[in-house]
Design a protein that fits this description.
- Strands 5-6-7-8-9-10-11-12 form an 8-stranded parallel beta sheet, covered by helices on one side. A two-stranded parallel sheet has the order 1-2.
- It has 4 domains: about 60 residues, no CATH class; about 220 residues, no CATH class; about 170 residues, Ribonuclease Inhibitor (Leucine-rich repeat, LRR (right-handed beta-alpha superhelix), Alpha-Beta Horseshoe), CATH 3.80.10.10; about 60 residues.
- Helix 7 packs across helix 8.
- It is of the alpha/beta class and about 725 residues long.
- About 5% of the residues have low confidence.
- Helix content is about 55%, strand content about 5%.
- The N and C termini lie far apart (about 80 Å).
- It has 30 helices and 14 strands.
- One of its GO terms (molecular function) is ATP binding.
- Keywords: ATP-binding, Leucine-rich repeat, Nucleotide-binding, Repeat.
- It comes from Charadrius vociferus.
Length: about 725
């Protein structure tokens, strides 16, 4: 028989004969502790084998004469074991959600490869993954970042960290022999949390021995407190803090997982541990006076019935004043938590950073391309997860888990903090945020898990600019979930250059329906994505009036889907298909369906390799169209004869204006700045040689028209436009 006794530190065993009597009869009724002691003494069932697990501080509770062998389980001492764990965990079937088997397995292999390379070059991550439970945390975070495709996401990042702590510390008391019976997690929040918070506030991640003593030992006054600290240093310290491996910082400590510093700092603040001396003394006095006043009040109320003394009601009220006054002070404390959250969430010095999800991804998988050594500290530490964790900890689910860990956050406290946040967080969000910061704000709202608060915050967002944010499936799910708390129309949603694909559009579909102006440029959206866009535009609830698809490989097949959408749509007024590889055939398909549309006002078909036939056909259809009055056709392969035919169009006669060049006879076109602005914005993404040829032709056309006019005012206008074109040509030639 093999007995496995797990967690000896929870039992207070007494091996003295006077404390626990000898027992060799399995049938004799004795207390459980006596059974365990006699098993370990080998007095009861001596032939049985016994394995005991315990924390280091409790090892000596069993006398050495009863122990045959000691073994310390350290972790993955070999990085190959770490890699094997990651490979097995990340290759589990079903972890990739709805993706097809081929693409998901490829992505999993890529993740394992990137993680392995980062482990080889990043000693600090390898040191963290020495502990198998941190390997679990890394894999769970990667699952969250890469394989979340549900709306709303089934997990939150704060929930992962809270579950990780429950996995390791659920039901754990720091020292079962101590009368305070403080939970291990509560002690960690008070001590390590304080260190983490002070590090966040001073923007540092490396801590000296002096820093540790300042946080852990400065308030130690009793023998009991020193004993608890000794147990903590023996059992828990190395789990959260590890020696730094950066050159020149060998005698300092860092948090084993960097994000854990921000989580514990957030927990320290939300639990209300960040108090001044006056606040702590006030709380203790309030509790004492509150308890005493209840007893005294009962006695005085009885006396007042027998002896009608006038001063008794006054005395009763005086006894109640202090607890009431302190409750008001605690309300101010909730305002301070909300203020801290808002200040940290909207720090202007963080405006140029990547969003937090990309930061986490880089910290785990590393950064591709040239970079400084991974174990070198960055120029400036970033702590943008800190306020997001503060919001996440306040969610109902995380509060319930923390309650099990001995860290209680009352419903009323969470409600009051949320109420105070409305004055700070929502007000500051209305000022307009850069794309990466706006993504962080949306992620904060997702982590907070408060639907009413989120709805109120989102109603104030009429314009959502996320251009150049790498919109992974997780970020798309977060955006769809957060925006889904309300049903208001969005004036503008900018998703330019966001790495969108067909699955992204599918996730965002309910949000896209409510957007009046929709920017989807530079996203590699091909025919399959155009099929989703067709379904979007044909939906009865679609309100999209301005759709920009410039610089996407739409092609002829994609044009077919968009043409079907144009025929049945009732909301679209402006459509940009600039540089979408339509060609003549794709443009012909759009022209055929254009007659069925009754609302389009402007159509951009520039830079699509159109010849005279397709361009003139589109214009002929536009002439008969009820509302279409502007067609962009610049940077196409239109001949001189075709240009003359398009130039002869008159708005008052033909009802349509074709934007082909910068001149209008012997004058500059009214739309010259519009055309050059479009070219300027797209120079980095277009074929430079072809653009250079087009600009050279435009310059010749400008010079020719300038020579034909005698009006000095017009000549000056021509010279101004020519200088702008020459600047662009200069930039192209110098590659800037």
């Amino acid at each position: 028989v093999l007995f496995i006794l797990n967690g000896l530190e929870r039992l207070n065993l007494d091996f003295r004969l006077a404390g626990t009597e000898l027992c060799c009869d399995p049938n004799e009724p004795v207390p459980p502790s006596a059974i365990v002691v006699n098993l370990l003494r080998k007095y009861l069932l001596p032939e049985a084998s016994i394995i005991v697990t315990t924390r280091p501080s409790a090892v000596r509770r069993i006398p050495g004469k009863y122990v045959g062998r000691y073994a310390e389980i350290c972790g993955f001492s070999d990085t190959n074991l770490q890699k094997l764990y990651f490979q097995m965990r990340l290759s589990q079937p079903g972890c990739s959600g709805e993706n097809s088997v081929g693409s998901s397995s490829g992505e999993q292999e890529n993740l394992v490869e990137m993680l392995s390379r980062n482990l080889e070059r990043h000693n600090q991550i390898a040191a963290a993954c020495f502990l198998p439970s941190y390997c679990w945390l890394v894999c769970t975070t990667l699952h969250f970042l890469y394989f979340t495709r549900t709306v709303p996401p089934s997990q939150t990042l704060t929930g992962i960290y809270t579950s990780f702590l429950r996995l390791n510390f659920s039901g754990e008391v720091l020292d079962s022999t101590d009368p305070t019976n403080i939970s291990m997690m509560k002690y960690v929040a008070k001590t390590v949390g304080k260190l983490a918070y002070e590090g966040v506030m001073s923007r540092k991640t490396c801590f000296s021995e002096d820093d540790l003593q300042q946080c852990f030992e400065v308030e130690m006054k009793t023998e009991s407190e020193l004993n608890l600290l000794e147990v903590f240093r023996s059992d828990v310290f190395r789990f959260f803090l590890t020696p730094c491996v950066q050159p020149g910082k060998e005698h300092t400590f860092v948090f084993t997982i960097p994000a854990m510093q921000e989580y514990l700092a957030a927990l320290y603040v939300v639990l209300g541990e960040k108090k001044t001396v006056a606040q702590r003394v006030g709380k203790e006095l309030s509790e004492i006076i509150g308890k005493v006043s209840e007893d005294v009040a009962v006695v005085l109320s009885i006396i007042s019935k027998v002896l009608p003394l006038r001063f008794l009601p006054v005395l009763l009220n005086l006894l109640k004043i202090f607890p009431r006054y302190f409750s008001r002070l605690s309300g101010k404390d909730r305002d301070a938590i909300a203020h801290t959250m808002a200040e940290e969430l909207f720090k202007e010095e963080d405006y140029n950073n990547d969003d937090v999800l990309d930061q986490i991804n880089s910290s785990i998988l590393g950064v591709e391309g040239p970079m400084h050594h991974p174990d070198e500290a960055p120029d400036d530490e970033v702590f943008e997860l800190f306020p997001i964790f503060m919001g996440g900890i306040l969610s109902r689910r995380n509060r319930a888990i923390l309650e099990q860990l001995g860290c209680s956050i009352k419903n009323l406290a969470a409600f009051e903090i949320a109420k105070a946040m409305k004055k700070t967080v929502i007000r500051k969000s209305r000022k307009g945020l850069p794309p990466s910061e706006l993504m962080d704000y949306l992620f904060f709202l997702h982590e907070f898990q408060n639907e009413r608060f989120t709805a109120e915050a989102i109603r104030s967002l009429r314009t959502v600019n996320l251009s150049s944010v790498r919109m992974t499936p997780l970020k798309c799910s977060v955006l769809a979930s957060v925006m889904g708390t309300t049903c208001h129309e969005v004036e503008e949603l900018n998703l330019t250059s966001c790495n969108l694909d067909t699955s992204s559009l599918r996730i965002l579909f309910p949000v896209l329906l409510r957007c009046k102006a929709l920017h989807l440029q530079l996203n590699s959206l091909g025919p399959d994505a155009c099929k989703e866009i067709r379904d979007l535009l044909l939906h009865e609830k679609c309100v999209v009036s301005n759709l920009r698809l410039a610089n996407n490989p739409v092609g002829e097949q994609g044009a077919q889907y968009l043409a079907e959408a144009l025929a049945g749509n009732r909301s679209l007024t402006h459509l940009s298909l600039l540089h979408t590889a339509l060609g003549d055939q794709g443009t012909e398909v759009i022209a055929q369906h254009l007659a069925e549309n009754q609302h389009l006002q402007e159509l951009n078909l520039g830079y699509n390799s159109l010849t005279d036939t397709a361009a003139l056909h589109v214009v002929e259809v536009a002439k008969k169209h009820a509302t279409l009055d502007k067609v962009h056709l610049y940077f196409n392969d239109i001949s001189e004869d075709g240009k003359r035919a398009l130039h002869s169009l008159r708005m008052d006669r033909d009802g349509v204006r074709a934007l082909v060049f910068l001149t209008a006879g012997t004058d500059v076109s009214d739309y010259w700045s519009n055309i050059l602005n479009v070219v300027q914005k797209n120079l980095p993404f277009w074929d430079r040689e072809r653009v250079r040829q087009h600009l050279a032709l435009i310059l010749q056309d400008l010079e020719s028209s300038r020579r034909q006019t005698a009006n000095p005012w017009r000549k000056a206008k021509f010279l101004r436009v020519e200088s702008e074109v020459k600047k662009m040509l200069g930039k192209l030639q110098h590659g800037t």
